[in-house]
Amino acid sequence: MPEDNVKVAVRVRPFNSREKDRGAKLIIQMNGNTTTIKNPEEPNEEPRKFAFDYSYWSHDGFTEQEDGLLVPVKGSNYADQPRVFEELGRGVLSNAWEGYNSCLFAYGQTGSGKSFSMVGYGCNKGIVPIFCDQLFVGISQKKDEGTKTEFEVTFSMLEIYNEQVRDLLNPSSNKKGGLKVREHPKKGFYVEALKQTPVQSYQEIEDRMDEGTRNRTVAATQMNATSSRAHTIVGIKFTQKSINDAGQEMAKTAVCNLVDLAGSERAESTGATGDRLKEGAAINQSLSSLGNCIAALADKAKGKNVKIPYRDSVLTKLLKNALGGNSKTIMIAALSPADINFEETLSTLRYADRAKQIKNAAVVNEDPTEKLIRELKEENQRLMDALKKGGVVALSSGDDDDDRQQMTEEVNSTEKEALRKELEEEMQARLRDTEAEMEEMKKTWEEKLKQAQESAGHDAEKEKKEARKSKPHMYNLNMDSQLSGMIVYILDQSLYNVGNNKADHTPDIILNGLSIQKEHAKITNEGNKVFVEKSSPEAKLLVNGEPITSKQELDHNDRIMFGSNHLYVFQHPVLYNADPKKYTVVTYEMAQEEIAQKSGFDMSAKDSTEDKLLQQDLIDLIPMVEEANAMSEELNRRVKFEIKMLSATARGLQHGRTEVFVKMVNLDHDLEYLWDREKFIRRKYLMQEMYQNFQEGEDWQLPDEKDPFTESPDTEVFIGSSHVYLQSIAYLIETKESVIISDYQGQQQGLMDIEVVPCNSSGKELSEADDVFVDDPKEMIGRSLNFVVKIKSAMGIPTKYKDVYCKYKIFLDKEDNITDKKGGSISLEFNHRKYFNFDVATSQLVDYLVKSTLTIQVWGVQQTKEASKAQKKPLTEATPDGNINQDSQMTADKAAYMFQLAALKTQKEQLEKRISYFEKMLNVAERYNKERIETAVIRQVLSAHSLKVADKAISRIPYDNGGYVTYSGGEHSSGGGGNDPKKSSAVCTLM
């Protein structure tokens, strides 16, 4: 029966330095095993509470010792690394000794502290290294006690990126498309040809982990992977061989998977972008699939009959045993405490809450060695027989999630043949695997160790570690802190040439990837001074965020950017030792923030959550845009990308935060598109795949519909928006305006004729002659309110747009009101009319009309230069009799001039109206000897779009005793308090 073999722990990390500098606020509290999260935007909202097996408070209450070890202060609740291991990792270790499979995985957004819990840093070792160390401590103790048991430990390390598996201990085996994931009827899913390295000490494991991490770093830097979106699985296979009472050799085997999941990325609240291109294998598909499996397993634990979608991703295949099979499993949910990350932290808590409902049935993996060998031989023979007969055998593990043998009966003949070939290929692969496994079982443990040591060779990394203490050097920075510092170059020679190794050219320091020239830079060591300079004019080289043009001396902790994505920190022990207090620790975020600051973006400390999110987006996107531009240039895609920050108003919205967009410019056709953050990131990863194919000499050209550098010709773009005040409707007064259409940069794109006219209940429009306006909008509450919105026409919209239409929402509309599509002319006649009826006007509706504007967005489809020119009329046009019709000489330049003239005329009329309203207001104030006017009155007069609305505001200039001046455009009289100027209570002084 399934047991409660799945434990869930949550752990909250401290604020990082950037969050501290920006005044981040705490949103997490812990009381025992209960975790509480508070929404910073809703102070009156009830906090949300979650209960887990373990809740670790690692936010504060600690002190840092001289060696960097973080220890709890007396009386604090700080959960340090040893405590987390004792309560979580110790259980994994015990399971391994007992012969149970175990899995421990960490989930959370990028930067939430997953890697700190799993791997740690410095002397603050995480669960993985402590587990490995303690495993060998236990083995040593057993051997000291004189046990006759033979212990075998093998280590593997793989990475899953974009549904492709890479062996981090054997990079040469990583072919295009990654390693294959196969299925065994008993072992379940496994990675074909994954290197399993025999180890006999913790130091050997540590060396292999460093080797795997360096391989990750090189791959990430050269564009083959992006570490923050990759999953890393460390596999420890622990076998204990002993002789039982019957004289049989018994093998007790435990497989421990320690998984550092990719960061769960923040998704924008705007939702899907409608992008025609999605990532080929969906970067986040594995995390989504993992969530689906966890949800389905939680339902299954409640007794529901559900299918578990393990096959939806590589990650869930490899974690199948951990999630719902023969394993004892622990999940760590890493939490950010910062208010900026509320939504992501809440999502992580919900994810973990589902996971704690899963139940597993774990069993001890202990069998006689002879039995294991016999089963391998039987499996081998069965596969060989089937292949000789040209048939296939069932390869599924028999679970209810899938049965591919049954699938062959449910598809047509073509699909059936393709599936048969796939199964045959898998059978052949399994045959190779069983033969290899049988050969391995024939070898003694000593032979396996000797072979592993011979293949490892000499490790120069130890020498580098020592050299860094006394010699100048530089190390890499990566957005994944675990990958920072993994690539080190010692600079003790007099000259180092930096460049790529293409065309039989081998520089001293090889940097392959984007924008790296054959001869890129020179680093010279002149005594205790180190200099850097460009080797070619085309080379991109930044020092501390600024491009350099001449030879420059480097100081300790200087940041150097080679090309578009090689970021390094220079360190000089001699300079550091001379004044240690002068220097601080450099992080990837600090370096990118510096580059953003030097590029003209405001990165100073901000108080609001919106500003913090904006700055974080800039830090994330600026290097990505640089990479995208470099790829476009190298692939000759004729596309350029630029960062744009758009407020809600610039995007044609009334509410919302300023967001980072990326403008894509097609240089050949002069077309511009705005991509939101998520769309650009998706496209950028597809660009990386294209660029990787280009680097590997494969066919990288794609048709336009699959090319991430292109947009569909039918893509609709935002042209601009117009804003119309609705205050007049609250007074039952019509508004007739020619309003300017402004794009996201505030530039005029045309003029729009719009009317908003009050109506009676039967839909008849009311005019000034009906004299039905009210003294105060509040009088409309509870009454029927009806009006019509007319979008009559637009002029001046550039002819490069076709299929132009307008859309808008009124009050609580969920769907857009949309006009017909027009195009091909300077003047567009929409003739749109929409009737709005509110049987009972609520206070919210009236407040909306008084304070809000009607935002009308204008959208259209761009045309190429050629298509746009083809639509323009010629300078002269012949009449049927061959004569020139002078009236038809409407050139584009003339149309543009007429539009500019009309726009200036509209602006002039609006300004003149406002001036006349102000003059009238001042005349009233002077006539009654008023020295001050309420700002509310001034604001109403300033925003008035008709004389009646302005007069209404002027007529209610209040007095201290509640009286007011009544004004009807001619004579004035006092109401209530009379016209005694001493009783005035206005708050704006007249100078």
TrEMBL record:
<keyword id="KW-0067">ATP-binding</keyword>
<feature type="domain" description="Kinesin motor">
    <location>
        <begin position="5"/>
        <end position="358"/>
    </location>
</feature>
<dbReference type="Pfam" id="PF12423">
    <property type="entry name" value="KIF1B"/>
</dbReference>
<dbReference type="GO" id="GO:0003777">
    <property type="term" value="F:microtubule motor activity"/>
</dbReference>
<feature type="compositionally biased region" description="Basic and acidic residues">
    <location>
        <begin position="449"/>
        <end position="466"/>
    </location>
</feature>
<dbReference type="Pfam" id="PF00498">
    <property type="entry name" value="FHA"/>
</dbReference>
<keyword id="KW-0505">Motor protein</keyword>
<keyword id="KW-0547">Nucleotide-binding</keyword>
<dbReference type="InterPro" id="IPR022140">
    <property type="entry name" value="Kinesin-like_KIF1-typ"/>
</dbReference>
<dbReference type="Pfam" id="PF00225">
    <property type="entry name" value="Kinesin"/>
</dbReference>
<protein>
    <recommendedName>
        <fullName>Kinesin-like protein 6</fullName>
    </recommendedName>
</protein>
<dbReference type="InterPro" id="IPR035892">
    <property type="entry name" value="C2_domain_sf"/>
</dbReference>
<feature type="region of interest" description="Disordered">
    <location>
        <begin position="449"/>
        <end position="471"/>
    </location>
</feature>
<keyword id="KW-0813">Transport</keyword>
<dbReference type="GO" id="GO:0007018">
    <property type="term" value="P:microtubule-based movement"/>
</dbReference>
<feature type="region of interest" description="Disordered">
    <location>
        <begin position="395"/>
        <end position="418"/>
    </location>
</feature>
<keyword id="KW-0175">Coiled coil</keyword>
<feature type="coiled-coil region">
    <location>
        <begin position="894"/>
        <end position="921"/>
    </location>
</feature>
<dbReference type="GO" id="GO:0008017">
    <property type="term" value="F:microtubule binding"/>
</dbReference>
<feature type="region of interest" description="Disordered">
    <location>
        <begin position="970"/>
        <end position="991"/>
    </location>
</feature>
<dbReference type="InterPro" id="IPR008984">
    <property type="entry name" value="SMAD_FHA_dom_sf"/>
</dbReference>
<dbReference type="InterPro" id="IPR001752">
    <property type="entry name" value="Kinesin_motor_dom"/>
</dbReference>
<keyword id="KW-0496">Mitochondrion</keyword>
<dbReference type="GO" id="GO:0031966">
    <property type="term" value="C:mitochondrial membrane"/>
</dbReference>
<dbReference type="InterPro" id="IPR027417">
    <property type="entry name" value="P-loop_NTPase"/>
</dbReference>
<dbReference type="InterPro" id="IPR000253">
    <property type="entry name" value="FHA_dom"/>
</dbReference>
<comment type="function">
    <text>Microtubule-dependent motor protein required for mitochondrion morphology and transport of mitochondria in neuronal cells.</text>
</comment>
<dbReference type="InterPro" id="IPR036961">
    <property type="entry name" value="Kinesin_motor_dom_sf"/>
</dbReference>
<dbReference type="GO" id="GO:0005524">
    <property type="term" value="F:ATP binding"/>
</dbReference>
<comment type="similarity">
    <text>Belongs to the TRAFAC class myosin-kinesin ATPase superfamily. Kinesin family.</text>
</comment>
<feature type="binding site">
    <location>
        <begin position="108"/>
        <end position="115"/>
    </location>
    <ligand>
        <name>ATP</name>
    </ligand>
</feature>
<keyword id="KW-0472">Membrane</keyword>
